[in-house]
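A quick aside before the break. I want you to see a complete sequence-to-structure record at least once, exactly as it would be stored in a machine-readable document. Don't worry about memorizing anything.
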Amino acid sequence: MNPRPTNRGPILSILQIRQFRMLWYVGSLSEMARWMELLVLSWLVLQTTDSAFQLGLVLVFNNVPRPLFSLFTGWIADRFSRHLMLIVAQSTNVLTAGGLTALLFLDVILPWHVFLAAFILGVSRSLEDPARRTALLDAVGEGRLVNAMSLEVISSTAGKVVGPLIGGIIIDTLGFSGSYSILLSIHAVNLVLLATQVRIPNVVPSSAAEPIWKGLGSTVRYALHSPVLLGLFYVTVIMNATAFPVRQFIPVIGRDELHVGATMVGILLASEGIGQLAGAGMMAATRDLRYLGRVFVLGSISVLIMALLFSWSPWYAMALIVLAIGGVGQAGFSTMQSTITMLAAPPEMRGRMMGLLSVCIGAGTPLGTLEMGAIATISAQWAISGNVLAGLALVLPIMLLSPLATRPVIAASKISIPEPGPISTG
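That is the input. The structure line, written in tokens, reads:
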């Protein structure tokens, strides 16, 4: 049973819940390893191929599994053990890191090995996301979901800060084989914690017997008839096609325009996370935030504007500052993205709806990254600028046209739908 809310503030109240706290610890370690791994793989490809396009392929292969598998993994999260899903995902990370470590020590690694590893890690991610985030809602309830998801964003953002910092330093000091030895250790420790310390009760929804294709079809139909979810998924696709691939090309801007090495590039990547930590911390401490969609859309717009400024920053210090400001906006985007998705979906559909959200993320990222990578072979600055300006043109109308930004979000579980009664004959 979850403890009752206390007057110690929303953050301390949530952290008193052991189920949430252990999920949060494991998620924090997982996110640190994820961002560290992405930098190591990206820098490895950039240094061995000197190709901005192949650098972009790391992110492409990492995100392709999302549209392919996430609806199915969301359906699994609604019907089966979420704890087992997390253990399978983390075991996959351990095996992948072990294989790459062996290839690096043998000095036989090739770019296709990196792309394959990125793909497998993407499959693992598509398993982990719907299982862990719906488990977080189970732990805290709807009333404290914004605060819980803010803490979730804090943990993922702390990983985004610490991971690249450690990754850049160990690449410069221990090389790629040393970097992956450390990553393998982190993944192994997280698997042990997940298996021995995390307990997630099985939740059997009323629709547990629903066939898979019927269940997935009902999820898509529900989203298409929800203006809030439709607006959120639209913005998600646009942002993942035009804004978030920019992060993958920060190493190119850092090396070729700002003339810095792996450690300084790691600090650049971390600066965005520092801003995101600040923004998530503010939201974690808020009470009764009503216009969740407005925070989501305004956060999206600020991310786009800061990405444009970053691409043309003439000084390293300026690049750090604008990336940090963009991180504050990304905190609003990330926190509200998952929060709105779960609140706007019926309780028995939340895992599948999170899977559909992951499909939208995966659908936008590979296309945007491929296009940006192709243009970046000529100019990374113009590749970023063109995508960001297109993103602004597509997102700004949502501020006026969608109830996502103009109305408060009401939880689907609080909207009563009357059961059909008998037909009157008199």
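Two observations worth writing down. Residues 1-7, 416-426 have pLDDT under 50 and may be disordered. The radius of gyration is 21 Å. We'll return to this after the break.
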